[in-house]
Amino acid sequence: MRLNNSNPHDFYGFHFNNDGQLVDERGQAFNFSEQKEIRGANFYPKLCEKIMNFVQESLVTSLSLEKIAIPVDAKENEPQSFIFASRNALTTTDKLLILIHGSGNVVAGIWSRKVIMTDNLYKGSQITYVDKAISEGYEVVILNTNVNSKVVHCETWEGDVPIRGSESPKEHAVHVWDNFICQSKAQHIAVVSHSYGGVVTTHLACERRESFLSRVFAVVFTDSVHQLDPKRMPKDVFRFFCDNARNWVSSNLPLDTCIEKGKRPPLSDPRKISAGDPRHEWTTHAAYNSVFAFLREEYEKKISRARAASATGDRKNIS
């Protein structure tokens, strides 16, 4: 998709052109080293904040997502965070896609700030994934795992206060699962998680084992840093990831090339596949088409199994 650029936002003399590239008024692409030398080191975080706000605004205005404050039962003046969700995320009975970014300074809606600024808005943000998911019949929930505290100003004190339910990325995911995703009617849930988002995902699966295994049909990792240990996690959770997950990793090998050496053990970490790009922050975009092809394949498998089970039950009832 392409955002409406009839009234382009200004980012300290830069704007996104129709192709999503950050350029100046002459059409010259943003150059980090050049701008750092001219404007100083403090320019980058200011620009990042402005761009991240723009991306989150676009999720609402261009993709019709809703910004939902958490915790939902926050008391007056209690620190809050937020997530994004499509309007029917809690009511759909079909497909729901959860997006989980990595660690660091990224927030909901962003895969990589660097990719957005040095190459393309659509490649570094989650806009393209949300648009594609909606076009394929998914409702969407975007987690915001890195917002864990807020600065509170009082007359006698000032400091960071943890956000209840989001004290850490892992706790944030569990809180959103319990209060939103588990409350939804979606029968077919998929997860796409980048980098540390994979650690968050595997933790969530272990903490909410029964509901996760019964409703999630596929997990996509992109250059995830998770580690699965069958000795430290439920065996059925471990087997689920072996059978229903793929990890597109940074590699110079062609896209979708299996990069494991030798015969893969019956129970091992999710199959590692080349994302077709050696740069960690690029993997989610580089594997974009393959990710959705995999999700379509896994969804069809689940539907086929359900139909077969239903048919078997009907035959037993008849006999």
Please characterize this protein's 3D structure.
With 319 residues, this protein is an alpha/beta fold. Helix content is 38%, strand content 19%. The protein contains eleven helices and twelve strands. Strands 3-4-6-5-9-10-11-12 form an eight-stranded mixed β-sheet, with helices on both faces. A two-stranded antiparallel ribbon has the order 1-2. Helix 6 crosses helix 7 and helix 7 crosses helix 8. The longest helix is centred in the last third of the chain and has 31 residues. The chain is globular and about 70 Å long. The termini are far apart. The model has no long low-confidence stretch (mean pLDDT 91).
What proportion strand?
15-25%
Percentage of residues assigned to helices: 25-40%
User: Assembly type of the shown chains?
Assistant: single chain
Low-confidence stretches: none
**Broad shape:** globular
Task: Please outline the helices and strands.
Elements: E1 14-16, E2 22-24, H1 32-39, H2 43-61, E3 66-70, E4 81-85, E5 95-100, H3 113-118, H4 121-124, H5 127-135, E6 138-142, E7 149-153, E8 158-162, H6 169-181, E9 188-194, H7 197-207, H8 209-215, E10 216-222, H9 235-244, E11 245-249, E12 271-274, H10 283-286, H11 288-318
Parallel strand pairs: 5-6, 5-9, 9-10, 10-11, 11-12
Antiparallel strand pairs: 1-2, 3-4, 4-6, 7-8
Helix pairs in contact: 6-7, 7-8
